[in-house]
Structure of Endonuclease GajA/Old nuclease/RecF-like AAA domain-containing protein:
Amino acid sequence: MDITLKNLGPIQEANFTVGDLTVICGRNNTGKTYITYATYGFLDYWHSGWPEISPIAGFDKHPLETYARRLLHVACMEYSSNWISKIFVGGKNKFKNSTFYLDDDIYETPSVKSKNVKTLPNVFIASAERTGAALFQREVDFTRSRLIDILKETNVNPQQLLGHFTAEYPLPVKHNIDFIRDLPNIVNKQSIFAQEHPEVLQTFDDIAGGEYTINRAGGISYSPSNQPDLNLSLAESSSTVRSLVEIGFYLRHLAQKGDLLMVDEPELNLHPENQRKIARLFAILVNHGIRVFITTHSDYIIKEFNTLLLLNKPDERLQVLAQREGYQLSELLKPEQLNVYMTVVDERVTDKVSYTLIPAKITHDSGIELTSFNDTIEDMNRLQDEIVWG
């Protein structure tokens, strides 16, 4: 999927391709989350069944593929004009000049209702606010319900009062909250990994340090691997457990081949060892047919992807090394599977500070050539060497 964004937050214009594994790196406040949310928003909009449109003129005279591509173009225009502002918080005027365009090969028969078109991937997102969504969703729901009950006993209009307390969240955050709320129903489903590849779930459990379940009250319980009879609530569990809960339930109950999993800052609350492990998990998912899209500030994750690229060569020494270090064939990556981008200042814009994306060079010989982290690390090393050695 080739995507072009214009006039979106700090992004003046950016072009990128969503491949098997897509990584967006860059400094804080340079547009990474805008890019992620806009992409998620369009795919959700496409699959949710966007408003009916009249059949495009000449439908009966063009090949279905041509018609489908034209339908996709219309969807992008409609999304840019009327829907992209609903993905974010800030009002329509803030996004009145924003445009989103997606170009992709479409071969299946289209429908005027996008929910019937299965050519673009189904998408699941774990936002950077996922920890709060997992921890406080039930408490917020209970408090709101209790407040309504109390107000019914007074002369105050409940809906009018609650309108003053309505919180606005970006769509991905709302969907994370909805996901947690619906877990008692979701756990009745089985993902491709639960059905065919339980070893992938075991890999995830190793990172989380245990397993998640839904208890009789409909809440989330966590059982550490070293104490399987112990059931902890999320409030009693570590921040690592809370940050991984949505990814864990998605992998066990929803994930299917062809999906796109989007994770904003997967390194949240993870020790460097687990940051390396989650990079390896993402590679496994990619090799099982799940596309992965992440934003990250983690040098550990990038370097682990690099290792998975460099080990994937017909070199006996490297094969022995991979076996010694516990790497499996299912974890190794090819350069063509990986797209890495960095947010940088857009020098084409002179009247304000704006950002764009530039691709990192990726080769079999050198892996990922990325300066964003290396410059900072080298600067720290230089300073510490001078402190110690003078």
In short: The CA atoms of residues 221 and 233 lie 5 Å apart. Residues 1-121+260-390 form one domain.
